[in-house]
Amino acid sequence: MLLDLVTSRRVVFVGGKGGVGKTSVAAALALGRAGAGARVLLVSTDPAHNLGHLWGRPVGDTPTRLAGPGDPAPGAAGYVDGLEIDPERTVDQHLTAVAATMRRLLPERMHQPAARHLELARQAPGTHESAVLERVAEAVELGEDSYDLVVFDTAPSGHTLRLLALPEQLTSWTEALLANRDRSDRFAAAVRGLGGGREETDRDAELRRVLVRRRDRFTRLREAVTDPARTGFVLVLTAEVLPIAETTEVHAKLTGMGVDVAALVANRRSPADAGALLARRRAQEDTHLARLRRQVPDVPLLDIPLLPGDLVGAEALGVLADLLGPTS
Ligand SMILES: Nc1ncnc2c1ncn2[C@@H]1O[C@H](COP(=O)(O)OP(=O)(O)O)[C@@H](O)[C@H]1O
Ligand SMILES: [Mg+2]
């Protein structure tokens, strides 16, 4: 089942329309794998975070233990650490770091215009996303070093697709900057031939290192995300017209970007044996899912029933994890 489908992966993105159950499924997946002994990092990239609400404890911008040794997940040898990426704080840190680099690398007379430029950049479209992407890259790297699995609880689909398309764009943007640097390096060398300064060369070398590091980081992220052996996308939906249309569309886009869709999860399925109304709903859902099956024939599709209680706290998540289940 779902846990088996993702067992061999190191990175799982859980996506889908708002409200379909992404956070619940991501958390249950994390808990299920931890129950099988894995060290799991659960990362929310949705600006409307709710890992904290779900686990009934504060989760912040650094990894916090949610379940594991010393915690109410009995018998689990593995653990779940949670992390909510805070876009505001990320942008702040990002711009502070960029400002420091700029001050180091730019000649004095450029400091003020550069600072003004950065203040504008804070509000510019894409700044939040590229800062969040940097943190996604960082989380994937942290996962490689210290965890067996990183589960991303993502923002609603459109946002996440833009985020995943960014490494490509940022890489080519950095390439262009580097090509520009190449030209100005040659120019600087020519100037030095005419008696230009040594300081310029050091600055150029450092700026180049910063750009190369950033480019390499996004290249590595793109490689990780488009490697089906390492990364899978789980698309959560409810069996209704709009979520199904969106699932088909997102599946096509992800596949086009080279991202493997590991599973579709039809959440909150209505019971067939609990009265006429729900039985009719169930039949309607079956019709929708049959259409989804025709449109996306080759990806495993799993059902999760509508559960009676609130899905809050480790115990409720454990019930959901069991439904994702048998672990191997
Ligand atoms: N299988 C289910 N049965 C009952 N309630 C569910 C189920 N899955 C999710 N929910 C509830 O639906 C609401 C939305 O789920 P959530 O995981 O927060 O969605 P998303 O992260 O996609 O916005 C929550 O109140 C959650 O408890
Ligand atoms: Mg959510």
UniProtKB/TrEMBL annotation:
It holds the Pfam family ArsA_ATPase. SUPFAM superfamilies: P-loop containing nucleoside triphosphate hydrolases. It comes from the Bacteria. Residues 8-293 form the AAA+ ATPase domain. Belongs to the arsA ATPase family. This is ArsA family ATPase. It comes from Streptomyces durbertensis.
